[in-house]
Amino acid sequence: MAKRIDVSGLSAYYGTFRAIDDISMTIEPRSVTAFIGPSGCGKSTFLRTLNRMHEVVPGARVEGKVLLDDENLYGSGVDPVSVRRTVGMVFQRPNPFPTMSIYDNVAAGLRLNGIRKKGELDSIVEKSLKGANLWNEVKDRLNKPGSGLSGGQQQRLCIARAIAVEPQVLLMDEPCSALDPISTLAIEDLIGELKTQFTIVIVTHNMQQAARVSDRTAFFNLAAVGQPGKLIEIDETERIFSNPTVQATEDYISGRFG
Amino acid sequence: MSDVVNDAQPLSGAPAPSRLATARLPRWAPLGIAVGAIVVGFGVGAAAGWKSHIQWGLLALFLFVAGSYAITARVEGRRQAKDRVATSLIWASFILAVIPLYSLVQTTISKGSKALDGTFLTHSMNNVLTIQPGGGVYHAIIGTLEQVAIATAIAAPIGILTAIYLVEYGVGRLARWVTFFVDVMTGVPSIVAGLFILSVWFEATGQAPHEGFAGSLALTILMLPVVVRSTEEMLKLVPNELREASLALGVPKWRTITKVVIPTAVGGITTGVMLAVARIAGESAPIALLVFGSDVINNNPFQGPQSSLPYYIYQQYTNGNDPSYNRAWSAALVLIAFVMILNALARAIARWKAPKTGR
């Protein structure tokens, strides 16, 4: 199921501003890859280019190639809608649909894509909520609004919603930054389980989190404010945190930055 | 370090006078000052023999604001006194705003209830001499309902779709022009809208219109910009995160709009449409030009002259005799009730459809 991502020569722009410059990397299937780096270095922008969410912002465009198992996401004739069905995304702030119940939130992606059979929906909703470790907490109130859950539960609901459409890759943009340590732990455990089925990419500001959950870590940096962000290095997480090749990485990780 | 430990233990003896708490006026003080100001203001007014009761009220108002400031400044301090003055001014403005509303509703109810009965609501003015009492408003209610319904059926979809275009798709010159012309349309006087439809109708058919549908078209022109503007504001309030969450699930943009954006904003959109309906329900100028007015029941908005509530009020009032005055006031009451029922419905729908919270 999970797919490899090969990025080569990727630059992303907001209007005339180049946010990230010439990034190339390989993201392995069935593993967790963490992106770390200071604010404004283009981690989130890069993440959003991987499922063509970048171009949703008016004036934004992308140059370069993103190969998903040899298929270029930016090839001519590629439908961004089918790309997003294959590459799911969880956002920084939990964003359940406020007009929908817990059940409808999880079923939203399926229903909006045309699956309507009650039995099929029921089983996928249950499977996804179990997959997101939320089933036991919400199984008795599936018809209550999703916005009534706690922040951590809402974020797990969003993860359930994302995995319900069975993507190949799951992108997570600082999924724990709005959550307390207990909810963070729940989501990190969940990431560990999900990586057996999905390719996971996670952006985080929390270096301990990157060290805990990821197999490989990429460090991004920018020369100065207003300059594009660049990929400094990507390697096994253990190496990045113990013996990085580049001095800037070590400075950033050890807190000696700037 | 030992100081910190001591602080945590309960203090013995009397607490030192606090610097954080000051003397406070009792909770009834603003009301008391208000009552005092009104008594003194009206007393002075009556004693001095001022004819205008507005002068009494203004004096009471001045005494209320000045009294609040003086008393609060003495007891609580200057900052609290300023706060109290601001609060007093807001209350005074509120009361000033409510007085005309109350007066309007009270006058309409007291004068409008004279002729208002079952007969009035179920009969037309057919074969009723204007100087006779009796007759009714049924034909005008039918006219207003049909004309407003047709106008809404045309303006609401076009307006909502325009707003969706502007918020979800509109970039560049076309969107700017659409916004500009919507703003221009907001300022079109109703008589001009009526004249526009009149001239278009004349060009198209060679004769002047005598039917409800022509009035509906003019009302559509008046309603459209209100619907576009209010819907636009409501759609802008929908957080972008929801659109992105839906797009990231691989949902096409049009389904994101129909299934996520619009349901989230539907309460506000409904309220906006209802307010626009309320605005056009009171228009008489286009009806006088295009629908011609009528004393008999005409259920067909596409043939023959009709009446409408505002036009009926105007017609009865210009008759210039007591039975007609009473009918005009009653029709005004019916019109106000109609608009209020619509508003209540809009609020109910908005509450029912609002994004749900709670467990």
CATH topology (fold) name of chain A: Rossmann fold
N-to-C series of helices and strands of chain A: EEEHEEHEHHHHEHEHEEHH
Major sheet characteristics of chain B? none
Low-confidence stretches of chain B: 1-9
Distance between the termini of chain A: 42 Å
Coarse morphology of chain A: globular
Radius of gyration of chain B: 29 Å
* Gap between N and C termini of chain B: 47 Å
Q: What is the succession of H and E elements of chain B? A: HHHHHHHHHHHHHH
Largest interface: A-B, 31 and 26 residues
DSSP strand content of chain A: 25-35%
Strand order of the largest sheet of chain A: 6-7-8-3-9-10
The CATH level-2 architecture of chain A is identified as: 3-Layer(aba) Sandwich
Protein name (chain B): Phosphate transport system permease protein PstA
Main location (chain B): membrane
Subcellular location (chain B): Cell membrane
Membrane topology (chain B): Multi-pass membrane protein
Question: Could you characterize what this model shows?
Answer:
- The complex is a heterodimer of chains A (258) and B (359).
- Chain A is of the alpha/beta class.
- Chain A has one domain (5-254): Rossmann fold (3-Layer(aba) Sandwich), CATH 3.40.50.300.
- Chain A has helices spanning 43-49, 80-86, 102-112, 118-131, 135-138, 151-164, 181-194, 207-213, 237-242, 247-254; strands at residues 5-14, 17-27, 32-36, 60-68, 71-72, 87-90, 169-173, 199-203, 216-222, 229-236.
- A 6-stranded mixed beta sheet of chain A has the order 6-7-8-3-9-10, sandwiched between helices. A 4-stranded antiparallel beta sheet of chain A has the order 2-1-4-5, with helices on one face.
- The N and C termini of chain A lie far apart (42 Å).
- Chain B has 359 residues and is mainly alpha-helical.
- Chain B folds into 2 domains: 24-112, no CATH class; 138-353, MetI-like fold, CATH 1.10.3720.
- Chain B has 14 helices and no strands.
- The radius of gyration of chain B is 29 Å and the shape is flat.
- Chain B starts with a helix and ends in a 6-residue tail after the last helix.
- The model of chain B is unreliable at 1-9 (pLDDT under 50).
- The A-B interface holds A 51, 53, 56, 58, 81-86, 88-89, 91, 93, 95, 97-99, 108-109, 112-113, 141, 144-145, 147-148, 158, 161-162, 165 and B 171, 239, 241-252, 255-256, 259-260, 263-264, 353, 355-359.
